[in-house]
Amino acid sequence: MEKLIDKRLKPGADKERIDAQIWDLFGEEWCVMFTDLAGFSRNVAEFGIIHFLQTILEAERLLVPVIEDYDGILLKTEGDSFLVIFRNIKKAVLCAIKMQETLQDYNQSRSAEEQVLLCVGIGYGKMLHIGDTEVFGQEVNAASKLGEDIAKSGEIIATQAVVDQAQGINLVWEKLEQAPQGMGDAFKLKY
Predict the structure, then answer these.
(1) Nearest Cα to 79, choosing from 62, 60, 95?
(2) pLDDT at 47 exceeding the cut of 80
(3) The listed CATH number (3.30.70.1130, 3.40.50.920, 3.30.70.1230, 3.30.420.40) that belongs to domain 26-190
(4) Exposed e or buried b per residue across 116-127, where buried means at least 16 C-beta atoms within 10 angstroms of its C-beta
(5) Distance (Å, whole) CA 91 – CA 78
(6) Which residue ranges make up each domain of the chain?
(7) pLDDT in the model for residue 190
(8) What is the DSSP string of 81-106?
(9) In whole angstroms, what is the distance from residue 33 CA to residue 92 CA?
(10) Partner of 153 for a Cys bridge, out of 38, 79, 91, 132, CB 3.0 to 4.6 A?
(11) pLDDT at res. 167
């Protein structure tokens, strides 16, 4: 990839041809999930960094087995966020539901400050899959924005591409009144 980007940077480079080569080599279709834990900044300020680390580790302990059960690939964790890819959209959406249900069950016996609260964004489409830990593309950016900035605790929000590909799965989607700029429509899953 780096060699191709270096070629692309040279004066007079045939960027269109190089871009096509990059997509041929690294372009793949995936369903991508980006998660975020709700209320983290507030909780760190209020309860301290050790509480923050405890919540992250508890989220990993509870949710990584769910991801694996639905054939998801956890590419990386960054702070309180997961980046996960799936080949199968149905499994991705069902995994997101199961993750939320797992945390709802867990949270029933916990005080408010001990609860693990999850926000989920899902996208689908062609993206650049680089190595074992990176994906790049419009749907990756959309899933990240939806999971980190738009979804609230307990919500699963997806792009139009996910909803289009999830036809035939018995799901109810509610269109958001305003989706992030440049993204197209976004939908909240009613589960």
Answers:
(1) 60
(2) no
(3) 3.30.70.1230
(4) bbbbbbbbbbeb
(5) 23
(6) 26-190
(7) 95
(8) EEEEEES-HHHHHHHHHHHHHHHHHH
(9) 7
(10) 38
(11) 81
